[in-house]
Design goal:
Blueprint lengths: L1 H6 L7 H21 L1 H5 L6 H22 L4 H25 L12 E2 L6 E2 L1 H19 L7 H20 L3 H17 L4 H24 L8 H14 L8 H6 L1 H13 L23 H34 L3 H25 L17 H26 L8 H7 L1
Helix pairs in contact: 2-4, 2-13, 4-15, 5-6, 5-7, 6-7, 6-8, 6-14, 7-8, 7-9, 8-9, 8-14, 12-13, 13-14, 13-15, 14-15
């Protein structure tokens, strides 16, 4: 009877992680509802009620997808990753020519599904599938030394291809792809000489892309000039007496408003829905929602939220450490790094530690694609956590021989 109950368990997997996810998901409704008034009155897109309904729908859908991912064995997800990645690469190529903008965004990152009002970001799915693909490939080939051409073709090739397709319209995500991919290679025990080789090739690829985008017309409508401007504004904001003229102030407008919102929040905050700066802060419901959270819920609210995120990351690391299968452990750590990097970048932008980027706050920021991808990541992690007990019951120890590792992948 107990076995039947576990099979159909609603919250399958790590219960602490489930609790944190549910708490953050429930909380996200309040700041999004408050900040979405910016979309209604400034961007002239929908109403606060419609945005609330849409966000709630994506939260519920995301939770359902997260639970649904637990039904499929994570090994099968790994095996499908190469095919799905190939499909996403084709969609990334299509986005370069037929991409659209939505909700006041300035970059053409979205692809509309024909015959429907639904749009999504292929870059988010390509990023996720690339990391899953790398985890499986590194695990599957761990038994023997890979030839140089194999590493170039099957590791460096997909990473640099996705980077090149994403970089034109989403520089921050493209850079994160390189950083997280490098982390996966390190954890996946790729030889150090190839790690250094990847760093060199990636640096060269970035340099070539920047040169072509800045000095030629081969990459039309690229955002490299925007990135350079943001870096310049960020550097100037750290110097005294560099923002005295109106042009500099205009360029630094987002960061100034975000900092003002954070200061305005103080210790206890202004209260839910009482942000005074949400109408003046662009992307207040997505990229800069952390600033609105601090303004409305104060330092205490921000500390509680960050604590929940820290618990999430800690549980992910614990799951990876307990998982006997190398592929499962590598996959959990890699997905955890993805979430941690995105979380860190969003908060760092809000407090002006790094230049402005377009990265949402995981599970909170308004927007469908990024939220669903995060739920899929967490669904896979919960999937792996639910298998730990199964492996223990089957007598699989912490140490595996190479044949076992390859069979699992």
């Amino acid at each position: 009877m107990q076995e039947t109950e576990n099979k159909f368990e609603l919250l399958k997997g790590d219960k602490v992680l489930w609790s944190v996810i549910l708490l953050i998901s429930f909380f996200s409704v309040f700041p999004v509802y408050s900040a979405s008034s910016n979309l209604e009155y400034i961007v002239n897109s929908g109403t606060t009620t419609s945005h609330l309904i849409k966000h709630t729908f994506f939260v519920v859908l995301g939770l359902a997808i997260m639970r649904g991912v637990g039904v499929v064995k994570y090994e099968h997800i790994g095996k499908l990753s190469s095919i799905l990645l190939a499909i996403m690469i084709l969609l990334l190529g299509l986005t370069m020519f037929a991409g659209q903008t939505i909700d006041g965004a300035s970059a053409s990152r979205w692809l509309k599904i024909p015959g429907t009002p639904i749009s999504f970001q292929p870059s988010s799915f390509a990023y996720l599938l690339l990391i899953i693909y790398l985890c499986r490939y590194l695990t599957k080939k761990i038994k023997r030394e890979r030839h140089t051409w194999e590493n170039i073709l099957f590791i460096f090739g997909p990473v640099l291809l996705v980077f090149g397709l994403v970089a034109k319209d989403n520089g921050s995500t493209a850079l994160m792809i390189l950083i997280v991919s490098l982390a996966v290679m390190l954890i996946g025990q790729l030889s150090k000489k190839y790690i250094f080789g990847f760093v060199g090739i990636a640096s060269l690829a970035i340099g070539i892309f920047m040169f072509v985008a800045l000095k030629t017309d081969l990459i039309e409508n690229n955002r490299v000039h925007t990135w350079m401007s943001r870096v310049e504004v960020f550097m100037n904001s750290k110097k005294e007496n560099q923002l005295e003229n109106e042009i500099d102030k205009a360029k630094n407008y987002q960061v100034m408003q975000a900092k003002a919102a954070i200061v305005h929040g103080g210790i206890a905050g202004m209260g839910p829905g009482k942000s005074a700066l949400k109408q003046m802060l662009p992307q207040s419901a997505s990229d800069f929602i952390f600033a609105i959270i601090v303004e409305e819920y104060g330092f205490i609210g921000a500390l509680v939220l960050i604590s929940l995120y820290l618990i999430m990351i800690i549980r992910i690391v614990m799951i990876a450490s307990k998982m006997p299968a190398f592929f499962g452990s590598l996959l959990v750590l890699s997905l955890g790094i993805m979430i941690f990097v995105q979380l860190s970048v969003n908060i760092a932008v809000a407090v002006n530690l790094i230049p402005v980027t377009g990265q949402p706050l995981p599970l909170i920021s308004y927007g469908g694609t990024s939220m669903l991808v995060t739920y899929i990541q967490l669904g896979i992690i919960l999937n792996v956590s639910s298998r730990i007990q199964v492996y223990d019951e089957e007598g699989m120890g912490k140490k595996q021989d190479l044949e076992e590792i390859n069979d699992i992948a």
